[in-house]
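Mods, move this if it's the wrong board.
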Amino acid sequence: MKASIFSCSGLGDGLVFLTLLNNLKINGYDTFFYHKNLSEMNNWFENIKIKTYPDISKIDEILNKNDLIFLSFDKSNPFIKELIKRGKQNFSNNVYKLNPSPTKNIKKLIFYEDFKFDRNLCMVENLKNFSKNILKLKKTTISNSIKPINNLIFKKNLNTIAIHPSSGNINKNWDTNSFLKLAKDLKKINFNPIFIVSPKEKKDFLWIEENGFEIKTFITLSDLASFVYEVGYVIGNDSGIGHLASNLQIPTISIFRNLKTAKLWRPGWKNNEIVYPNNLIPNFSIFRLRDKYWKKFISIQKIIKKIK
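Not the wrong board. Structure tokens:
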């Protein structure tokens, strides 16, 4: 039987949904995985071929040749939107639209009934449960079959802490000045903080270099993964790099706006810690103090204490 997964474009989304692909594969499915740029890491996965999205003209062919199709919703992607539309119209029993959200009001989500994600479990555990309870697969795992490429040394640079001060959503980002203060405090206790950003973002962080800290950018995701695999720690916002670090067994500390988001979207493989504003801080619907000022409720010392 053939199964295809079409992931939305985030790095974390891709790594997480590769878990579902691996569950299908170990149960005998002939699998295909599509993602915007994760094909740059094809050499990191055993017996899995990652492809970029096909042309929208291929949708009917895709629907006809697959026994199962899984999509993580991406409203900005016209291909995925059209595939969902045609798939649900003509192949509703074979097309699963997966829309994870920490909200209690899941009935407001489109096709929420395809799978009701448990808000108290991380994504990879949810997809393992989906594989077992909905797809009735006999073998299930949280592994996505990632394997480090040759010649890399695990945690070679043990005292290096990679700091990722950005994400795909500016509203999820802790204050950049706070990251700088964190780096200064880490340096005082003999760590080597290095900031990592995308090439497009570097111009926005040049002032970090002016404060004496190194900034690294990477041409491909494989280059990024190679760097992450050899550091001692990763600290950053709720973003794909935290998932990548956890996936590679590198300890990671992820900063979240709130606990409910952290429970679902925390990295789910290994050695992950989360930091979020204390739930005792008032968050009444009229004022939403915790939501509005969450960045101020994340302390540097709280993050440093998470380093083991």
